[in-house]
Amino acid sequence: MSQSAREEILAKLKAAPKAKPAGRPSMPPLTELSWDPDQLIANFMANLTAQTGVVHRVKDEIDAKAKLAEIAAEEGLTTVIVSTDAVVAPLNLTEWGKEKGIKVLTAKDYTDRDAYKDAVFMEAQAGITGVDYAIAESGTIGLIHDKDQPRLVSVAPITHIAILPVERLRPTYERVTDIVFADKSNLPSQFTFTTGPSMTGDIQGGQFKGMHGPRKLIIILMG
Amino acid sequence: MEIRTEQFVEIAKKELKNARNKQFLSVLPLAITISRPRSMQSFPDPEAANEYGRAVRAEAVAGMPELLEEFEKNALANGAKIVWAKTAEEANAFVLNLAKERGIQYVTKGKSMITEEMGLNDVLQESGIEPFESDLGEFIAQQLHKPPFHIVGPALNIPVEEISDLFIAKADMKEPTTDPVKLGYAARLYLRDKFHHLAMGITGVNMAVAETGSIINVENEGNIRMNKSSPKIQVSIMSLEKVVPTMADAMHMIRLLCRNCTGQKLSAYISIDSGPKKSDEVDGPEELYIIILDNGRSEIYQDIQAREALRCIRCGACLAACPVYCKIGGYPYGWAYSGPMGQVLNPLLLGLEKTQDLYHACTLCGACKSICPAGIDHPKMFLYYRVQEANSDKKAAGGFITNKTAKFFDLWRWGTTRAWRWKMAVKTARPFVNRYAKDGTINKTIKPVEGWFRTRNLPAMARKTFHERWAEINKKVTSDQ
Ligand code: SF4
What we know:
The complex is a heterodimer.
Chain A: H1 2-15, H2 37-50, E1 54-58, H3 61-75, E2 79-82, H4 93-100, E3 103-106, H5 113-123, E4 126-130, E5 133-135, E6 140-145, E7 159-165, E8 169-170, H6 173-180, E9 190-194, E10 199-200, E11 208-209, E12 216-222
Parallel strand pairs in A: 1-12, 2-3, 2-4, 4-7, 5-8, 7-12
Antiparallel strand pairs in A: 5-6, 6-9, 10-11
Chain B: H1 8-16, H2 19-40, H3 46-62, H4 64-77, E1 81-85, H5 88-101, E2 106-109, H6 113-118, H7 120-126, E3 130-133, H8 136-143, H9 160-170, H10 180-196, E4 200-203, E5 207-209, E6 214-219, H11 223-229, E7 233-239, E8 243-244, H12 247-262, E9 269-273, E10 287-293, H13 297-300, H14 317-321, H15 325-328, H16 339-350, H17 356-360, H18 367-371, H19 378-391, H20 403-416, H21 419-433, E11 437-438, E12 441-442, E13 458-459, H22 466-480
Helix pairs in contact in B: 2-12, 3-12, 9-10, 16-19
The structure holds iron/sulfur cluster.
């Protein structure tokens, strides 16, 4: 079917009368673009908090690790799965886990996809990831998924902790997609925006968090 | 999915008596009139943001064939597999064959209106492949065999007691509960196991970006992300009109979509796929199939006016804005698409004959049009369908216009196109009309127009017509002079 269906559909569309749309007005102004660094941070935090995300501000990697330990204690975490992306890798969380008595898994511990899935679905109580870019306009974090940023780490465990270096904050989506989708010959297989925990209002409109993804989204804003 | 658009009046009558739905529907417009404008206000100039979105949709529809080609080229370059399907049957057959070939036992699905339109669930089920809807509302609606009540919240109206019974019977829940949180959690556990061992995930597509060959999904629950991360095979199905020119266009449309849909600045999850997973990646699909489904749209596209319907981005804002929807809910519309957008789309996709009541169930108030971020002029579309109906060959359409109506209008035309006929008719009709007059008002009359008087009264008609009185006055004035 494929080839003929394709030709037929396209031929039919092309044979249809042409309409000339009125043309585009100019893109409406985005005030976000004029925000200074402090405003970026303030708005990012306010927007994310409005979506019930939690943000902690720390000054450097050492403090970030201390904060992580605090969160782990509060949440009673004994097993976590972590990404190996450029933000998280330098923190050497495997070492940190040993110190704190927390089992730290990474996707790279598994050669087999099913075994990795068992770990991320059944074992890990939290997923810890870096953030590639964050967006102030809506309090959103953006993750480029690749071998060091597996998809399920940020969605399968009931808690998602993300570490965001402050210099990765941008005002708007376009400022991020312009970078992420710049090299058309090598696009990330998946890029995700996350704004707050997983939620639903599907039963009688009542809000319920952690429907399929994390019930808690905790951001450690670093720097 | 069973098509019940012809039973509109019947179902609407029943729904009007449904106390629970009524109670729910009475708060819906309130919720939307508060949250939607508030979220739109986060734009410095909301109207300009809307206008820009409407222009993007106009451009996307106008350039659809070229954009689809560009999308296909780039998606192929990303490593996705593109499958074109002319009809729902073709698309269903493709999914079914693929599932059979790969020995798939069950699939999970992200909420997608296009698969409702295709009736994919039934096709899979009949062949022994269990489809699990994984959006909570859709899961409930599916298990109860109900059509979506609302395109965004398909099961919003279902009472918790009913959900509790359902989950005990079908989702391994142990104890009955009326706590929505506990119910949601039971569904989480049940579906989580499905996601964990999933071999094939099926999703719709909110937007397809021509410039990059990417597909975008917008959701709050995370079930679509599961569908696109856990299994080795991902099938994403899009109709022709999902394509937009650039990533920046998609971002702007998503701004509008989320605000109009749930009053959020952004939904919890937006996921953008450009091809399958790379070989060194541990999760994500090894094979990504994108089905581009026509199912009547290229035919709709032939008509420049009808084509406007393809601008819709399925945000759902028009539903809560509609005074008719807010009385009868989503069931009477009888198919995947309900509310004003259903009244616009269903007649085109199913034919005017089957959907007559849908485009007549409208007062043309224009509330939908005024908020639509895609720039659809719903009332204009309804009038367009009504004109086509009126111009259609009555016999060929097979009682398309009821005989009574047709005869009435034939007589009306005969009577109104000559002055003498009109004058005579007006004169002779008076005693008949006044037959039920009482104290100067008429509040009932004979069939078939008795319904008109249920909510209105008419003053009794004067004994003489204006023309007669004018002639008399004139005579008097001239003779006095
Ligand atoms: S017709 Fe307009 S308002 Fe209604 S769902 Fe479609 S885009 Fe939204």
